[in-house]
């Protein structure tokens, strides 16, 4: 079972692609649509929720970055878990990451249907989802550079729009809406800064963590980055200030210009607010942006799922035929299988329109927590294996190993908090069954390997 990095993947991702992929992972439906749910739970204190979650995510990204810079391979933390922790952790983290991004992709496709309804209320969600699924899959099958270009422009649109919205929001705060200054009092006059107490604040952390799901994609790109030792540290170090500007900045301004308790769940809060304060053009432009954001994360989902399946096949943890690449170095079969599975989202939107997003979100949080926990523990094992050589690491995790333990405790708290949210409880019950399914899959794989070995000895 070869663990070596195959040479046929192409290093076609430039620095600008990696920077924007990092941004694309951090700005998606969690901010544009999921923020409505967090605002309902925490009120204006949501800004602190994003700071707390952002610090933990930054630490986890540094742990992944430490390993990715030392060994830049495709498949990322599944490869490291396999090498430094053991066969089953490698099997589990690879398949779980793939499953997680399938669920995230489904959530993004669901959000696409909601956003298209802003212009075309008569178009069913499942129709929009199907159209964009076909388009994005075709782009990913072209070559890695095409994916990088798509993501670059998707992210440029998102970043420009959020910065524009922040500037417009600041202007509205100080010049007023319809001649009336908004002031900062909206942050505390509707029940205080913590309207639902500290409990509401803690519960909001669960949805906040969904917003950051997929940010580990930076590590997956290491195998196709032109200069991973330079581009990956730069992308990871910028994660923290991006979270502060894009999440904390945008949401703070939004809640200053509009009462937090009037934000609904029938679309993006950003679009709703600008249309309600009488700026329909801003609302229409923003709807283009939130649609772009959802497509961007879906684009990244198809990309990373194809690579993770490819990596699993190379390890021997998935059928070997999935490891085939086309002439352009694209894992064709991995992409097609992943894309076909996200069709389930199209079916779910057809069967239960309107309820799909929160169900998918809860399962995605659980799968993301497993991913992050495996990165933290693998990083501890990686350091142990390095021994004194760890001193020579170029991109070290700050505060190791204490920051590893702190991040693990935070993730355990997230799972405990999910028990207290009705729409998320079921996902926690699914967790042990999902790990059992992976364990049985691993055992079946081992049994097939020993049978094949016995057969070759007999021959």
From TrEMBL:
Organism, as annotated: Desulfotomaculum copahuensis
Keywords: Amino-acid transport, Cell membrane, Membrane, Transmembrane, Transmembrane helix, Transport
InterPro entries found in the cross-reference section: AA-permease/SLC12A_dom
Transmembrane segments: 20-36, 42-61, 98-120, 126-144, 156-177, 197-218, 239-257, 277-298, 330-352, 358-382, 402-421, 427-444
Domain Amino acid permease/ SLC12A residue range list: 17-445
PANTHER family: AROMATIC AMINO ACID TRANSPORT PROTEIN AROP, GABA PERMEASE
Compartment(s) of residence: Cell membrane
Similarity comment text for this entry: Belongs to the amino acid-polyamine-organocation (APC) superfamily. Amino acid transporter (AAT) (TC 2.A.3.1) family.
GO biological process, one term: amino acid transport
Name the UniProt record assigns to this protein: Phenylalanine transporter
Topology versus the membrane: Multi-pass membrane protein
GO cellular component, one term: plasma membrane
